[in-house]
Design a protein that fits this description.
Chain lengths: 303, 998
């Protein structure tokens, strides 16, 4: 399905590019404009072998100032961006010392499997880019975006089974004994907000073509890519939080565990190590010429 | 050397003193002697003695050869002075002298008394001195013998000194050596000892058997093999036949002399032509009434008729010419009657006229690679008028090949040889008179393909016909031979790059996949060593039936390396009471193509021709026959026969060992015994016997071995006996003869019978026998396959044995070696009513121990069963979780035993899915028994633990501080110690020093 979408995007770019070949080169001048973009995004993890990322969507919109002086392009923008991501861990275990209802000490073991986190982040962004376009409809822009997360939320789904590990018994784990606090495997879900690394500095490139009508309006179609370097304070929370869970062997229950078990975002734990983000997609820009510099013809002088 | 009663004079010229007694070449004076062209000498050219070097001979070259000079007529003398007693004497000697065919070149012998005063001188002249005629021993001159002859002569002595004179005379003109030669002179007193007569012979390969008539006391036989130049001597032969070995074929001369008391006769000389049958592919020199035929033109009906009066006779129509230096007179002695390299030739036809037609038919079984090419050497002599007859009327020599008297392909299975076809190559003409010519063809060799007849019996028909008008003769000489029609000169062990087709054909070489492109027309064809293409050679008969017709066969040539493979099988058949072993040679040629990735070795139909058989008893035989027979002794034995197969002049070799284990087939005695009881009778060889009797007969059984058959009849007295017998039920069903009939017994019980008298094994006869036959019931015992033992103090294993049927004396238990190694004894014995309880050693390790349980019965063979003692794990390895949560294997036990697998049982039944180290239980399981079957590392069968019972106790939910140092309830809260640290129930470490004190 994704492959089909990619092919469609390339086809659009191709059509736009071909169209651009017959369009006029934008005249020199000052422009203001509006751009919208959409594409895919994902996380790039370092030192996190147990965590696997998944691809999500991305979108942004900006108000622009654009200068075109004899082919040199300068562009500044202000807007917002939205990114979606996915992370997952196949198996994760956690344990704590405990006693059971008979008073026998043991390790109480939590075994998580198929842990999947999906999250999104809405940021405000400031963009500055410069580039070149001369003699042909094609142009390029490169620059930097500065983003700050206004909102970051996540939802985690996982299966959990609890068991006891006793020194006295040969069995590795005692399972499926709810009266001893050992519950069968069942699905758990928790949601929350992430506050880790809100600031993002993002180098950006854009390649595209200009087309449109007359000297007043310029339309640009381009492909772009953004690599987000996240910065800011880092949350080093444990993945699981049992602080709200009733651990008393005489009163604990599976229902209580479902209600009170909290799972933090992977981006707030050490499990993800360092992380950055990336996004790529298609941008459409509309510019209106607000000031046109008069070109003086020196043809006769030259002759 | 002279002996009493023997010859009075002997001279073989080997004794130097005797040689001195001979006077050679006497002449009137030295000048006359110098004028003599030929002189007598004593030396090697005149020798005809077995191991001698000297003989008397005439030579014109100073003694170098026995040739003479015939420029002028002359005579030359040699003599020996002798004084013999008065009386008659026999003179014997060997001689040879050819001389002119017509003329007086010859040897002459004279006995000249000294008293006559004759002067003996040699001299030149056209005739001998006239006086010699008076002393001539025999008037017949010795001449026209180019090989050694034996002469016998008589003369008379007056008892006074005389001379034995030998004279060589030759006229002027041509010289025909050898000149006169004389050796082995014997003079005997005249006696009545008669020569042997009626000498005949038979022959087989290398062996000639002579037979003769005579009445002598014994005989002396000598023979001279002219081909091998070897003498054979046999003294004191008392029989009138003699087998002489190592003879060769050809003209042989045999000398047989009679000995009568002290007298001896002259040698009787027998000079047959010896030819061995079976040593050629075609015995073309074997002529008889069966294969010789004649008719007279124009009749075409032939009748069996063998006409042979000797090769010199004009009458002979089927004859053999075997004199090596014979020339055909009708060709003015230009045509030799035997071709070079051949022993003899067959002459078909003669020089008589009158429309004679002769035919010889030979049978041949055509073997591939051995006799598929017929080689014919022939020469034709035909009489013709100066104006030749038309072709059809000329004399003809023709060849036809028939199968079942039918020519399959007339054009390619016949050939006609005459001069009438215009090709006069090889033909010569002698003009006898103006209108009488003789056309003759020099010896010619042709080959005829018999490839179309491989494996068949064919008839080779050769025919000569006189001219059709009846006035001119025609005959032909021929020899026949066979050779392989395969490619020649093939090498082995490496790629063949040169192929040579058989001789005397025309050739056409081409690649099998491109027959239209002729690559060569030569007999030999060369290819590159890497060439693996298949080539075809058309081997074309040069005698073409017509312009458009060719007769040819095809040979395949491929350059792949060839190797011999020795293969053979054998059969052993006793013949004449010996082992006649026939070996079948199945060897073949293997080709190797290393350019293939698979099937590199190719078995071909090509045959090998060089084999050596080592029969393992010291006999070695080189034979390419497919079937080789060898006789081994009657006593048989073990022999290792080796077959060596060679190729490429023994460049390549393969061998096969065949082990023979032959049994002793010598005289055997067979004894036949017949037992009767008193009152019974037996008829043997037509006679009826009532009493004990014995007879011995000698037989010659198969294979020619004698055997002795002894027949013994025993008649036994009648006795009365009672037979009581017992049978075990396990041997049922049993066919019981109760005296009247055979009753099948299938169940235990007692059976009785009443038998008539019969012979029994203890050589006695029953009169009436009461028979009681008891079938012991089968022992049936119920015994568990496995007896489980739970380890405990005073450990013992009780095996539940229940006797269900049959009788049992005792029980014996025999633990196997592994069980004994674990501490069990080698055997435990229990009385039949005793409980079977095995005391087990302390500390016996859990495991399966096997023992054989023998149930001993009073009569029958013990019944045996196998029981497995399963010594389980102690119940102490299990624990019940307080609160009845689960039953599990304790960790310490798991570490001690190293368990790797679990299967839980509830009340003896396996619980599905319960294959962990514990099994959950609850109050509903109270009172039920649980055990676990445990696997250890390397085990495939689990060993169970002793059972534990779920107690259904209620979990204690309030702990006391004194329960265990690891947990304490302090001021209503529960704390747990792990190591040296304390935790609350939520796993958080607490610092409660007071707990340490508790």
């Amino acid at each position: 399905m994704r492959r089909t979408s990619d092919i469609r995007c390339l086809a659009v770019i191709l059509v736009l590019s071909v169209s651009a070949t017959v369009a006029a080169v934008p005249p020199t001048g000052h422009y203001i404009g509006l751009s919208v973009a959409g594409g895919v995004s994902g996380m790039q993890l370092s030192e996190a072998p147990a965590v696997s990322p998944a691809i999500g969507g991305a979108a942004e919109g900006m108000l622009l100032y654009d200068l075109n002086y004899r082919g040199f392009l300068f562009q500044a923008g202000l807007g917002a961006s939205w990114q979606q991501y996915g992370l997952g861990i196949d198996t994760y275990s956690d344990s704590r010392p405990a006693v059971d209802i008979t008073g026998e000490g043991h390790d109480y073991v939590y075994t998580y499997s198929s842990l999947r986190e999906s999250g999104s982040r809405l940021s405000g962004q400031l963009s500055v880019m410069a580039g070149w376009q001369s003699g042909s409809p094609f142009y390029f822009l490169a620059g930097m975006r500065l983003r700050y997360a206004l909102s970051a939320s996540y939802t985690t789904r996982t299966d959990l089974q609890t068991a006891g590990q006793y020194e006295r018994w040969a069995a590795d784990y005692i399972t499926n004994r709810p009266d001893y606090g050992f519950y069968e495997r069942s699905a758990y879900q928790t949601s929350g907000r992430s506050a880790s690394r809100p600031l993002c500095i993002a180098p950006t490139v854009e390649l595209g073509a200009s087309f449109g009508a007359g000297r007043k309006t310029v339309v640009r179609a381009a492909v772009y890519g953004v690599y987000g370097i996240h910065a800011g304070s880092r949350q080093e929370l444990p993945l699981t939080d049992y602080s709200g869970v009733d651990l008393n062997p005489f009163t604990q229950s599976e229902d209580n565990l479902h209600r009170t078990l909290r799972i933090n975002s992977l981006t707030d734990t050490r499990l993800t190590g360092g992380y950055n983000s990336w996004e790529a997609g298609i941008r459409l820009t509309v510019l209106w010429n607000v000031y046109h510099r008069q070109e003086h013809c020196r043809c006769e002088l030259d002759q | 050397m002279l002996t009493a009663g023997g010859p009075v004079y002997v001279c073989d010229f080997e004794d130097a003193a005797e040689r001195e007694q001979w006077v050679l070449n006497p002449a009137a004076n030295a000048q006359r002697k110098a004028e003599l062209n030929n002189l007598w000498y004593i030396g090697e050219p005149g020798n005809y003695s077995a191991s001698g070097h000297y003989g008397l001979y005439v030579s014109a070259d100073g003694g170098g050869t026995s040739d003479y000079n015939a420029e002028k007529a002359m005579w030359v003398m040699a003599y020996r002075a002798l004084t013999l007693g008065k009386g008659k004497y026999n003179l014997y000697f060997d001689w040879q002298a050819l001389g002119k065919p017509t003329g007086s070149d010859a040897l002459y012998l004279f006995w000249i008394p000294d008293a006559d005063g004759r002067t003996l001188n040699s001299g030149n002249g056209a005739g001998l001195p006239a006086y010699l005629k008076d002393y001539q021993i025999d008037s017949i001159p010795l001449t026209q013998a180019m090989s050694w002859q034996y002469a016998t002569r008589q003369f008379e002595s007056d008892g006074k000194p005389a001379k034995l004179v030998i004279v060589w005379f030759n006229g002027a003109g041509e010289h025909y050596p050898p000149s006169g030669c004389v050796d082995n002179i014997e003079i005997h007193e005249f006696n009545d000892c008669k020569q042997p007569s009626g000498i005949s012979h038979t022959s087989r390969a290398g062996v000639v058997t002579l037979s003769w008539n005579g009445s002598a006391d014994y005989y002396t036989v000598r023979s001279y093999d002219a081909n091998e130049q070897k003498w054979h001597f046999y003294e004191h032969v008392t029989e009138k036949s003699l087998e002489i070995h190592n003879m060769s074929e050809g003209v042989q001369t045999f000398y047989i002399r009679s000995h009568c008391g002290e007298d001896m006769s002259a040698y009787a000389v027998y000079t047959p032509f010896i030819v061995f049958e079976g040593v050629r592919c075609i015995d073309y020199m074997t002529l008889n009434k069966r294969n010789c035929l004649t008719t007279t033109l124009p009749s075409k009906t032939y009748s069996n008729n063998y006409v042979d009066n000797g090769y010199a006779s004009i009458v002979s129509r089927h004859t053999i010419h075997y004199m090596q230096n014979e020339y055909d007179p009708r060709t003015n002695y230009k045509l030799k009657t035997i071709p070079p390299g051949e022993l003899a030739s067959v002459r078909l036809g003669n020089w008589d006229i009158n429309n004679e037609t002769e035919r010889i038919e030979y049978k041949l079984h055509v073997e591939e690679g051995e006799s598929d090419i017929l080689k014919i050497k022939y020469a034709i002599v035909m009489n013709t008028p100066a104006q030749y007859h038309p072709e059809v009327q000329q004399a003809h020599f023709s060849l036809d090949i028939l199968v079942n008297n039918t020519q399959l392909d007339k054009e390619c299975s016949s050939a006609d040889f005459s001069c009438g076809y215009g090709d006069m190559t090889g033909w010569s003409e002698e003009i006898i008179s103006d209108n009488e010519h003789v056309l003759w063809k020099e010896w010619t060799e042709i080959s005829v393909s018999l490839r179309n007849y491989i494996g068949q019996d064919i008839t080779i028909r050769l025919t000569t016909t006189d001219c059709a008008q009846g006035g001119h003769y025609g005959y032909a000489y021929f020899t026949l031979g066979c050779e392989s029609g395969e490619l020649q000169g093939l090498t082995c062990g490496e790629a063949n790059t040169q192929f040579t087709a058989p001789d005397n054909f025309e050739y056409r070489w081409y690649r099998a996949d491109n027959p239209g492109s002729i690559l060569s027309r030569k007999q030999t064809f060369n290819i590159e060593p890497t060439d693996t293409f298949l080539y075809i050679c058309d081997v074309i008969n040069p005698i073409k039936p017509s312009e458009d017709k060719e007769c040819y066969y095809q040979l395949e040539a491929i350059g792949l390396p060839r190797f011999p493979v020795a293969q053979a099988a054998y059969t052993d058949v006793p013949v004449n009471c010996e082992h006649l072993v026939t070996f079948e040679n199945r060897s073949y040629v293997r080709m190797h193509n290393d350019q293939r990735s698979v099937n590199q070795d190719i078995v071909t139909a090509q045959k090998l021709e060089d084999f050596v058989w080592d029969f393992g008893d010291g006999t070695v035989l080189a034979s390419a026959d497919r079937y080789v027979k060898h006789t081994y002794p009657t006593a048989g034995g073990q022999y290792t026969v080796k077959l060596y197969a060679y190729m490429g002049n023994r460049k390549c070799e393969d061998s096969l060992l065949i082990g023979l284990d032959l049994k002793d087939i010598s005289v055997q005695e067979y004894v036949f015994n017949k037992h009767l009881c008193e009152g019974q009778q037996f008829t043997y060889n037509g006679k009826t016997y009532f009493n004990t009797f014995s007879d011995t007969t000698h037989y010659t059984v198969g294979g020619g071995c004698d055997s002795v058959a002894v027949f013994n009849l025993y008649v036994h007295d009648l006795q009365t006996s009672y037979v009581k017998d017992t049978l075990c039920a396990r041997d049922l069903p049993y066919q019981f003869f109760n005296g009247k009939e055979t009753v099948p017994i299938t169940a235990s019980g007692t059976y009785t019978g009443r038998w008539p008298h019969r012979y029994s094994e203890d050589c006695s006869c029953d009169s009436i026998a009461e028979v009681e036959f008891y079938v012991e019931p089968r022992l049936e015992v119920a015994l568990p396959d496995t007896a489980f033992v739970c380890p405990s103090a005073g450990l013992s294993a009780a095996i539940d044995v229940v006797l269900q049927s049959g009788r049992m004396d005792s029980i014996s238990i025999l633990p196997d070696a592994a069980a004994q190694q674990a501490g069990l004894e080698a055997q435990y014995r229990f009385a039949k009513d005793e409980d079977v309880i095995l005391p087990l050693p302390e500390g016996i390790r859990a495991g399966h121990y096997t023992a054989v349980v023998q149930f001993l019965t009073p009569f029958c063979v013990a019944e045996e069963r196998t029981v497995v003692l399963e010594v389980g794990y102690p119940v102490q390895i299990l624990g019940r979780k307080e609160g009845n949560g689960w039953i599990g294997v304790l960790g310490d036990a798991a570490k001690e035993y190293g368990f790797t697998g679990y299967q839980w049982y509830r009340d003896g039944l396996p619980v599905a899915g319960a294959n962990q180290a514990y099994i959950p239980v609850d109050n509903s399981d109270a009172g039920h028994s649980y055990y676990v079957s445990l696997l250890r590392e390397g085990e495939t069968t689990g060993i169970r633990s002793c059972p534990i019972v779920a107690d259904g106790a209620t979990a204690e939910k309030v702990l006391k501080a004194s329960d265990c140092l690891n947990k304490v309830v302090y001021e209503g809260c529960l704390y747990i110690r792990k190591g040296e640290r304390w935790y609350n129930v939520v796993g958080q470490e607490v610092n409660l020093n007071v707990l340490q004190e508790l």
